[in-house]
Amino acid sequence: MINNLNYEVIIIGGGPAGLTAGLYASRARLNSLLIEKGLVGGQIVNAERVENYPGFPEGITGFELGQLMHQQATKYGLKTVIAEATGIELEAGQKVVKTTKGNFIAKAVIIASGSERYKLGIPGENEFTGKGVSYCATCDAAFFKEQPVVVVGGGDAAITEALHLAKFASRVIVVHRRNQLRASRILQEKALAEPKIELLWNTIVEEIEGKNSVKRLKLRQVITGEKSTLEIAGIFISIGLKPNTDYLKGILPLDATGHITTDDRMETEIPGIFAAGDIRHHSARQAITAAGDGATAAIYAEKFITQ
Ligand SMILES: Cc1cc2nc3c(=O)[nH]c(=O)nc-3n(C[C@H](O)[C@H](O)[C@H](O)COP(=O)(O)OP(=O)(O)OC[C@H]3O[C@@H](n4cnc5c(N)ncnc54)[C@H](O)[C@@H]3O)c2cc1C
Questions:
Q1: What is the whole-number distance in angstroms between the Cα of residue 46 and the centre of ligand 1?
Q2: Where are the strands (E) in the chain, listed by range?
Q3: What pLDDT was estimated at residue 258?
Q4: Active-site residue, 293 included
Q5: Using a 6 Å cutoff on CB, does residue 288 contact ligand 1?
Q6: pTM for the predicted model, two decimal places
Protein backbone atom coordinates (compact mmCIF):
# COMPACT_ATOMS: atom_id res chain seq x y z
CA MET A 1 0.00 0.00 0.00
CA ILE A 2 1.37 3.43 -1.04
CA ASN A 3 0.42 5.93 1.66
CA ASN A 4 0.77 9.63 2.37
CA LEU A 5 2.83 10.51 -0.66
CA ASN A 6 3.02 14.26 -1.20
CA TYR A 7 2.54 15.90 -4.59
CA GLU A 8 2.01 19.44 -5.79
CA VAL A 9 -0.81 18.43 -8.16
CA ILE A 10 -2.96 15.34 -8.23
CA ILE A 11 -5.11 14.68 -11.30
CA ILE A 12 -8.04 12.28 -11.03
CA GLY A 13 -8.85 10.63 -14.37
CA GLY A 14 -6.61 9.78 -17.32
CA GLY A 15 -8.75 10.89 -20.29
CA PRO A 16 -7.88 13.80 -22.64
CA ALA A 17 -8.60 16.36 -19.88
CA GLY A 18 -6.48 14.64 -17.22
CA LEU A 19 -3.62 13.76 -19.58
CA THR A 20 -3.40 17.32 -20.91
CA ALA A 21 -3.51 18.68 -17.35
CA GLY A 22 -0.72 16.20 -16.56
CA LEU A 23 1.36 17.39 -19.52
CA TYR A 24 1.04 21.06 -18.55
CA ALA A 25 1.60 20.43 -14.83
CA SER A 26 4.68 18.28 -15.35
CA ARG A 27 6.15 20.65 -17.98
CA ALA A 28 5.72 23.39 -15.37
CA ARG A 29 7.96 21.17 -13.18
CA LEU A 30 5.23 20.49 -10.66
CA ASN A 31 5.50 17.15 -8.93
CA SER A 32 2.35 15.63 -10.43
CA LEU A 33 0.45 12.38 -10.03
CA LEU A 34 -2.30 11.01 -12.28
CA ILE A 35 -4.79 8.60 -10.69
CA GLU A 36 -6.66 6.44 -13.22
CA LYS A 37 -9.01 3.62 -12.30
CA GLY A 38 -9.02 1.83 -15.67
CA LEU A 39 -7.34 2.17 -19.03
CA VAL A 40 -5.35 5.39 -19.53
CA GLY A 41 -6.87 7.37 -22.42
CA GLY A 42 -10.43 7.69 -21.15
CA GLN A 43 -13.52 7.39 -23.32
CA ILE A 44 -11.67 8.30 -26.50
CA VAL A 45 -10.07 4.84 -26.56
CA ASN A 46 -13.50 3.60 -27.71
CA ALA A 47 -13.39 5.74 -30.86
CA GLU A 48 -12.38 3.63 -33.83
CA ARG A 49 -11.15 6.73 -35.68
CA VAL A 50 -10.90 10.32 -34.44
CA GLU A 51 -11.06 12.77 -37.33
CA ASN A 52 -11.66 16.02 -35.45
CA TYR A 53 -8.62 16.23 -33.18
CA PRO A 54 -6.28 18.83 -34.72
CA GLY A 55 -2.86 17.70 -35.88
CA PHE A 56 -3.92 14.38 -37.40
CA PRO A 57 -5.13 15.14 -40.95
CA GLU A 58 -5.58 11.43 -41.72
CA GLY A 59 -7.32 10.77 -38.39
CA ILE A 60 -6.01 8.54 -35.60
CA THR A 61 -7.45 5.66 -33.59
CA GLY A 62 -8.77 6.76 -30.20
CA PHE A 63 -6.56 4.18 -28.50
CA GLU A 64 -3.41 5.56 -30.15
CA LEU A 65 -4.39 9.14 -29.34
CA GLY A 66 -4.79 8.23 -25.66
CA GLN A 67 -1.46 6.37 -25.60
CA LEU A 68 0.39 9.27 -27.28
CA MET A 69 -1.07 11.78 -24.81
CA HIS A 70 0.07 9.59 -21.92
CA GLN A 71 3.57 9.08 -23.39
CA GLN A 72 3.97 12.83 -23.89
CA ALA A 73 2.97 13.69 -20.32
CA THR A 74 5.08 10.86 -18.86
CA LYS A 75 8.12 12.14 -20.80
CA TYR A 76 7.95 15.37 -18.78
CA GLY A 77 7.68 13.57 -15.44
CA LEU A 78 4.00 12.80 -14.84
CA LYS A 79 3.62 9.77 -12.57
CA THR A 80 0.65 7.44 -12.91
CA VAL A 81 -1.01 5.15 -10.41
CA ILE A 82 -3.83 2.77 -11.34
CA ALA A 83 -6.35 3.18 -8.53
CA GLU A 84 -9.88 4.45 -8.03
CA ALA A 85 -10.33 7.78 -6.25
CA THR A 86 -12.96 7.35 -3.54
CA GLY A 87 -13.01 10.81 -1.95
CA ILE A 88 -11.17 14.04 -1.15
CA GLU A 89 -10.59 15.51 2.31
CA LEU A 90 -9.24 18.94 3.22
CA GLU A 91 -6.57 18.91 5.92
CA ALA A 92 -4.60 21.98 7.03
CA GLY A 93 -4.64 23.60 3.57
CA GLN A 94 -3.70 20.30 1.87
CA LYS A 95 -5.97 18.03 -0.16
CA VAL A 96 -6.00 14.36 0.73
CA VAL A 97 -7.14 12.18 -2.17
CA LYS A 98 -8.40 8.84 -0.91
CA THR A 99 -8.02 5.91 -3.29
CA THR A 100 -8.23 2.14 -3.38
CA LYS A 101 -4.40 2.14 -3.10
CA GLY A 102 -4.13 4.48 -0.13
CA ASN A 103 -4.12 8.24 0.43
CA PHE A 104 -2.19 10.79 -1.63
CA ILE A 105 -1.67 14.40 -0.57
CA ALA A 106 -1.45 17.47 -2.83
CA LYS A 107 -1.60 21.23 -2.79
CA ALA A 108 -3.99 21.29 -5.75
CA VAL A 109 -6.32 18.69 -7.26
CA ILE A 110 -7.67 18.56 -10.82
CA ILE A 111 -10.79 16.42 -11.16
CA ALA A 112 -11.06 14.99 -14.68
CA SER A 113 -12.99 11.78 -14.10
CA GLY A 114 -15.30 12.28 -17.10
CA SER A 115 -18.63 10.64 -17.62
CA GLU A 116 -20.10 7.41 -18.82
CA ARG A 117 -22.85 7.02 -21.37
CA TYR A 118 -25.85 5.05 -20.12
CA LYS A 119 -26.01 1.81 -22.03
CA LEU A 120 -29.04 -0.15 -23.21
CA GLY A 121 -27.57 -3.32 -21.70
CA ILE A 122 -28.70 -5.53 -24.59
CA PRO A 123 -26.93 -8.34 -26.45
CA GLY A 124 -24.56 -7.04 -29.16
CA GLU A 125 -24.10 -3.59 -27.62
CA ASN A 126 -20.62 -4.14 -26.17
CA GLU A 127 -19.55 -6.44 -29.00
CA PHE A 128 -20.28 -3.84 -31.70
CA THR A 129 -19.24 -0.64 -29.88
CA GLY A 130 -17.05 1.21 -32.37
CA LYS A 131 -18.27 -1.15 -35.13
CA GLY A 132 -21.65 0.44 -35.77
CA VAL A 133 -22.72 1.07 -32.17
CA SER A 134 -21.93 4.68 -31.23
CA TYR A 135 -22.72 7.07 -28.39
CA CYS A 136 -21.64 10.23 -30.24
CA ALA A 137 -23.05 11.44 -33.59
CA THR A 138 -20.68 14.45 -33.69
CA CYS A 139 -17.83 11.96 -33.59
CA ASP A 140 -19.10 9.19 -35.87
CA ALA A 141 -21.87 10.47 -38.21
CA ALA A 142 -19.45 10.89 -41.15
CA PHE A 143 -18.78 7.13 -41.14
CA PHE A 144 -22.41 6.46 -42.17
CA LYS A 145 -22.70 8.42 -45.45
CA GLU A 146 -25.76 7.27 -47.45
CA GLN A 147 -26.43 4.41 -45.01
CA PRO A 148 -29.47 3.84 -42.79
CA VAL A 149 -29.01 4.42 -39.05
CA VAL A 150 -31.08 4.31 -35.87
CA VAL A 151 -31.04 6.76 -32.97
CA VAL A 152 -32.32 5.43 -29.63
CA GLY A 153 -33.81 8.03 -27.27
CA GLY A 154 -36.32 10.86 -27.22
CA GLY A 155 -34.65 13.78 -25.43
CA ASP A 156 -32.86 16.87 -26.71
CA ALA A 157 -29.58 14.99 -27.13
CA ALA A 158 -31.17 12.18 -29.18
CA ILE A 159 -33.01 14.56 -31.53
CA THR A 160 -29.91 16.76 -31.94
CA GLU A 161 -27.99 13.60 -32.87
CA ALA A 162 -30.72 12.60 -35.35
CA LEU A 163 -30.64 16.03 -37.04
CA HIS A 164 -26.86 15.87 -37.31
CA LEU A 165 -27.00 12.34 -38.73
CA ALA A 166 -29.56 13.41 -41.35
CA LYS A 167 -26.76 15.41 -43.03
CA PHE A 168 -24.92 12.14 -43.75
CA ALA A 169 -27.14 9.06 -43.51
CA SER A 170 -29.70 7.89 -46.10
CA ARG A 171 -32.37 7.34 -43.37
CA VAL A 172 -32.45 8.16 -39.67
CA ILE A 173 -34.99 6.14 -37.68
CA VAL A 174 -35.55 7.42 -34.13
CA VAL A 175 -36.62 4.52 -31.92
CA HIS A 176 -38.36 5.73 -28.78
CA ARG A 177 -39.96 3.63 -26.03
CA ARG A 178 -42.75 6.18 -25.42
CA ASN A 179 -45.40 7.73 -27.68
CA GLN A 180 -44.02 11.25 -27.45
CA LEU A 181 -40.62 12.89 -27.37
CA ARG A 182 -39.11 14.69 -24.36
CA ALA A 183 -37.07 16.96 -26.65
CA SER A 184 -37.86 20.68 -26.80
CA ARG A 185 -40.64 21.72 -29.19
CA ILE A 186 -38.27 23.52 -31.55
CA LEU A 187 -36.13 20.41 -31.95
CA GLN A 188 -39.23 18.26 -32.48
CA GLU A 189 -40.42 20.63 -35.22
CA LYS A 190 -37.04 20.48 -36.93
CA ALA A 191 -37.05 16.68 -36.76
CA LEU A 192 -40.58 16.42 -38.17
CA ALA A 193 -39.63 18.77 -41.03
CA GLU A 194 -36.57 16.68 -41.94
CA PRO A 195 -37.61 14.16 -44.62
CA LYS A 196 -34.82 11.72 -43.74
CA ILE A 197 -36.00 11.36 -40.11
CA GLU A 198 -38.67 8.77 -39.23
CA LEU A 199 -40.07 8.11 -35.74
CA LEU A 200 -40.80 4.65 -34.42
CA TRP A 201 -42.95 5.05 -31.28
CA ASN A 202 -43.45 2.70 -28.32
CA THR A 203 -40.58 0.56 -29.49
CA ILE A 204 -37.46 -0.81 -27.84
CA VAL A 205 -34.32 -2.40 -29.27
CA GLU A 206 -33.84 -5.89 -27.83
CA GLU A 207 -30.73 -7.07 -29.67
CA ILE A 208 -28.05 -5.79 -32.04
CA GLU A 209 -26.88 -8.30 -34.65
CA GLY A 210 -24.09 -8.33 -37.21
CA LYS A 211 -20.87 -10.01 -38.20
CA ASN A 212 -17.86 -7.68 -38.29
CA SER A 213 -20.14 -4.67 -37.91
CA VAL A 214 -23.79 -3.94 -37.14
CA LYS A 215 -26.27 -5.34 -39.70
CA ARG A 216 -29.70 -5.41 -38.04
CA LEU A 217 -31.72 -4.73 -34.89
CA LYS A 218 -34.34 -6.88 -33.20
CA LEU A 219 -37.19 -4.62 -32.07
CA ARG A 220 -40.29 -5.02 -29.87
CA GLN A 221 -43.38 -2.83 -29.85
CA VAL A 222 -44.01 -2.37 -26.12
CA ILE A 223 -47.83 -2.11 -26.32
CA THR A 224 -48.66 -4.88 -28.79
CA GLY A 225 -45.58 -7.01 -28.04
CA GLU A 226 -45.07 -7.39 -31.79
CA LYS A 227 -41.48 -8.25 -32.76
CA SER A 228 -39.68 -7.10 -35.91
CA THR A 229 -36.21 -6.68 -37.40
CA LEU A 230 -34.64 -3.61 -39.00
CA GLU A 231 -31.64 -3.69 -41.38
CA ILE A 232 -29.31 -0.81 -40.53
CA ALA A 233 -25.59 0.08 -40.58
CA GLY A 234 -25.36 2.04 -37.35
CA ILE A 235 -27.12 2.60 -34.04
CA PHE A 236 -26.57 5.77 -32.00
CA ILE A 237 -27.56 5.32 -28.36
CA SER A 238 -28.48 8.61 -26.72
CA ILE A 239 -30.25 7.82 -23.47
CA GLY A 240 -28.22 10.04 -21.17
CA LEU A 241 -24.84 10.62 -19.57
CA LYS A 242 -23.77 9.88 -16.03
CA PRO A 243 -20.90 12.02 -14.70
CA ASN A 244 -18.37 10.10 -12.59
CA THR A 245 -18.91 12.25 -9.51
CA ASP A 246 -20.47 9.83 -7.00
CA TYR A 247 -17.25 9.91 -4.95
CA LEU A 248 -17.49 13.72 -4.66
CA LYS A 249 -21.01 13.91 -3.17
CA GLY A 250 -20.96 15.95 0.02
CA ILE A 251 -17.48 17.26 -0.82
CA LEU A 252 -18.16 19.53 -3.80
CA PRO A 253 -21.41 21.18 -4.86
CA LEU A 254 -22.76 19.40 -7.97
CA ASP A 255 -25.46 20.63 -10.37
CA ALA A 256 -28.81 18.86 -10.78
CA THR A 257 -27.28 16.40 -13.27
CA GLY A 258 -24.26 15.66 -11.06
CA HIS A 259 -21.76 17.76 -13.06
CA ILE A 260 -19.24 20.16 -11.47
CA THR A 261 -19.58 23.92 -11.86
CA THR A 262 -16.32 25.88 -12.27
CA ASP A 263 -15.30 29.44 -13.05
CA ASP A 264 -13.45 30.23 -16.27
CA ARG A 265 -10.16 29.17 -14.63
CA MET A 266 -11.71 25.71 -14.14
CA GLU A 267 -11.63 26.29 -10.36
CA THR A 268 -14.46 24.95 -8.21
CA GLU A 269 -15.92 26.60 -5.13
CA ILE A 270 -13.08 25.07 -3.11
CA PRO A 271 -9.81 26.98 -3.74
CA GLY A 272 -7.19 24.69 -5.21
CA ILE A 273 -9.69 22.12 -6.48
CA PHE A 274 -10.19 22.35 -10.24
CA ALA A 275 -12.37 20.37 -12.67
CA ALA A 276 -11.82 19.75 -16.39
CA GLY A 277 -13.44 17.97 -19.32
CA ASP A 278 -16.75 16.15 -19.71
CA ILE A 279 -17.31 16.30 -15.97
CA ARG A 280 -17.93 20.06 -16.12
CA HIS A 281 -21.34 21.68 -16.26
CA HIS A 282 -22.20 22.37 -19.94
CA SER A 283 -19.05 20.78 -21.32
CA ALA A 284 -19.05 20.40 -25.13
CA ARG A 285 -17.99 16.75 -24.53
CA GLN A 286 -15.25 16.49 -27.12
CA ALA A 287 -11.65 15.36 -26.75
CA ILE A 288 -10.33 18.75 -27.82
CA THR A 289 -12.53 20.73 -25.41
CA ALA A 290 -11.56 18.35 -22.59
CA ALA A 291 -7.88 18.84 -23.46
CA GLY A 292 -8.37 22.63 -23.46
CA ASP A 293 -10.01 22.50 -20.03
CA GLY A 294 -7.14 20.35 -18.75
CA ALA A 295 -4.54 22.86 -19.94
CA THR A 296 -6.42 25.77 -18.35
CA ALA A 297 -6.86 23.88 -15.06
CA ALA A 298 -3.14 23.04 -14.85
CA ILE A 299 -2.07 26.62 -15.62
CA TYR A 300 -4.27 28.02 -12.84
CA ALA A 301 -3.34 25.17 -10.48
CA GLU A 302 0.29 26.25 -10.89
CA LYS A 303 -0.67 29.89 -10.13
CA PHE A 304 -2.63 28.68 -7.07
CA ILE A 305 0.40 26.77 -5.78
CA THR A 306 3.00 29.47 -6.43
CA GLN A 307 0.93 32.34 -5.07
C1 LIG B 1 -17.24 5.81 -28.76
C2 LIG B 1 -16.83 7.25 -28.55
C3 LIG B 1 -16.30 7.93 -29.62
C4 LIG B 1 -15.89 9.27 -29.45
N5 LIG B 1 -15.35 9.91 -30.52
C6 LIG B 1 -14.91 11.18 -30.37
C7 LIG B 1 -14.32 11.88 -31.47
O8 LIG B 1 -14.20 11.34 -32.58
N9 LIG B 1 -13.89 13.15 -31.26
C10 LIG B 1 -14.02 13.77 -30.05
O11 LIG B 1 -13.59 14.92 -29.91
N12 LIG B 1 -14.61 13.16 -29.00
C13 LIG B 1 -15.06 11.89 -29.14
N14 LIG B 1 -15.66 11.24 -28.08
C15 LIG B 1 -15.87 12.01 -26.84
C16 LIG B 1 -14.55 12.06 -26.03
O17 LIG B 1 -14.05 10.74 -25.86
C18 LIG B 1 -14.80 12.70 -24.67
O19 LIG B 1 -15.36 13.99 -24.83
C20 LIG B 1 -13.47 12.83 -23.91
O21 LIG B 1 -12.85 11.59 -23.75
C22 LIG B 1 -13.70 13.47 -22.53
O23 LIG B 1 -12.47 13.50 -21.88
P24 LIG B 1 -12.35 13.59 -20.29
O25 LIG B 1 -10.89 13.52 -20.01
O26 LIG B 1 -13.13 14.75 -19.79
O27 LIG B 1 -13.08 12.31 -19.71
P28 LIG B 1 -12.95 10.76 -20.04
O29 LIG B 1 -12.39 10.52 -21.39
O30 LIG B 1 -14.27 10.19 -19.70
O31 LIG B 1 -11.84 10.25 -19.01
C32 LIG B 1 -12.14 10.14 -17.65
C33 LIG B 1 -11.22 9.10 -17.04
O34 LIG B 1 -11.41 9.11 -15.63
C35 LIG B 1 -11.39 7.79 -15.13
N36 LIG B 1 -12.11 7.77 -13.86
C37 LIG B 1 -13.45 7.92 -13.64
N38 LIG B 1 -13.73 7.88 -12.33
C39 LIG B 1 -12.52 7.71 -11.69
C40 LIG B 1 -12.16 7.60 -10.32
N41 LIG B 1 -13.06 7.64 -9.33
N42 LIG B 1 -10.85 7.40 -10.02
C43 LIG B 1 -9.91 7.35 -11.00
N44 LIG B 1 -10.22 7.46 -12.33
C45 LIG B 1 -11.49 7.64 -12.66
C46 LIG B 1 -12.06 6.98 -16.23
O47 LIG B 1 -11.67 5.62 -16.16
C48 LIG B 1 -11.54 7.68 -17.49
O49 LIG B 1 -10.37 7.08 -17.97
C50 LIG B 1 -16.06 9.91 -28.20
C51 LIG B 1 -16.61 9.22 -27.12
C52 LIG B 1 -16.99 7.90 -27.29
C53 LIG B 1 -17.57 7.14 -26.11
A1: 9
A2: 5-12, 32-36, 79-82, 85-91, 94-99, 102-111, 115-117, 133-134, 148-152, 171-175, 197-200, 203-210, 214-221, 227-231, 234-237, 241-243, 273-275
A3: 94
A4: no
A5: yes
A6: 0.82
